[in-house]
Amino acid sequence: MDDVAHVVLWATCSRQERSLPMSEEAKSDNLERMAKEGPRPGADVSFPFDRMTVEQFRKRFPRARWSDSRQAWFVPGRTASRRFTRWLADLEAEADAFADAKGRDSFEFEPIESVYLELGKAGFRIKTPYSRTVVDRLREVPYSRWDGDLKLWHVPYRSFEDLRHHWPVIEEAARRNEPEERRRRAEARKGTEEEAKSRARTVERNRRRYPLTSDDLPPVGCVVAIHYGLVVFEEITGELVDLEVVGKFYHGLTDDHVWGIWRLPTYEELVRAWPSKTAPAPGAKWWQPTIEELRPVRRAASRKRRNGRRSSSTKPT
Questions:
Q1: Which end of the chain is more exposed for a tag (fewer CB within 10 A), N or C?
Q2: What's the pTM value of the predicted model, to 2 decimals?
């Protein structure tokens, strides 16, 4: 980082903390001195206004002066920017430590008792059977992260209140996806009409075809979103959809629908895909994906790509 780089973080400050106004003669002398000596080495810095923070800042940087014209503090010195950034990082670390201690105290006062949660040194360790509901809920918890090596989620103590808010749904979804529970439901469905419909839907989806209206066809070779997820259409066959055969799998079909053949997009195609800024129209058969739809699919494709490289690198030659 350049020694004289400016740290731009907007802030305001009360007039009590600003330097006293200079007389016209002093201003003139100051301008002459600056013209001869050149600009003073230093950095313009600012931060969200808080009286306690300002007091800490002035103790750490006693030579700093407030500038009305730039609405920032000027910290002199060739290493001013680095020193300020280091001080700001220390403040954030202290705030995080306080938030972690507060979250740990809240947990001890009203703990979450679950076989899926245990305490670690820096926070909670959560390990559940795979469930899309669990993944979506944990992603909404601030600072949560997935550990691919240990196959569990880490959540810091500071996020305890958010975790407690989502925990009933997480617990229920985890129990529903236990192997024994899934086997029990599968046994209960055997030979029923529900199982037959489920198998028929699976067979139809594995054919990788999708009904499209003939007057609103997606671009071939581009990433688009359909009700299955993100796909790339390889071909529009022009073959009319037989309503009597597949009408039970797709809603709203008409005689104008034709088949489109799709495949899953590659990682490179997902990265190049341009997100839409607007939500899809109600009832749309396909649409340009939004950034919210692209992000999780990109992450999953990136993980799959890394795992593939890791496994190939460990194979004996």
A1: C
A2: 0.47
